[in-house]
Amino acid sequence: MILVLQDPKGETPAVSVKGYLYEEDHYTNPQSAEGLHRYSIRHDDDDMAEPRTMENDVLVNWFGWFFTETDLNLNGKDYLRIVDWNWGDELNH
Question: How many CB atoms lie within 10 A of CB 51?
Fold first, then answer.
C-alpha cells in the first residue's frame, strides 16, 4: 500500500509512504516487527473503504494498522491527512 500524507493545515509538502496494511482485528494490537513503525488509519465517516487520516491510535472509524519503515514523526500532531492512496506500490495518475 502507498499513502500520500500531509499535515492537517497543508503547511508542509505531501510525502509518499510505502507500507503494509493489517486489517484483520483492531483489538489484537499487533506489535511492530523490528525496523517497522506501526500507525492506525481512520476511514471516512461516510465511506468505510476510504482511508482519511494516519494516527498513532484510532478507536472510532478504524480502517487498519499500517506498518512502514518510515518514521512519520507524529510528535505534536494528532494526525496526518491521507491525500491520496493506492493498494499497489505506485499511485495511479
Answer: 20
Residue 93 pLDDT more than 70?
no
Do the beta carbons of residue 50 and residue 83 sit within 8 Å?
Answer: no
Listed range (5-9, 21-25, 82-86) with the worst mean pLDDT: 21-25
CB 36, CB 42: distance < 8 Å: no
Render pLDDT for 25-78 as a digit per residue (tens, 0 to 9). Answer: 766 666 667 889 999 999 999 999 999 999 998 989 999 999 999 998 886 789
List C-alpha distances in Å: 20 to 7, 12, 92. Answer: 21, 24, 18
- One-letter amino acid at 71 equals D
Which three-class secondary structure state does DSSP give residue 93? coil
Find out whether 83 and 6 touch, Cβ atoms under 8 Å: yes
Quick one: cell of 4?
500520500
Residue 27 burial (CB count, 10 A): 5
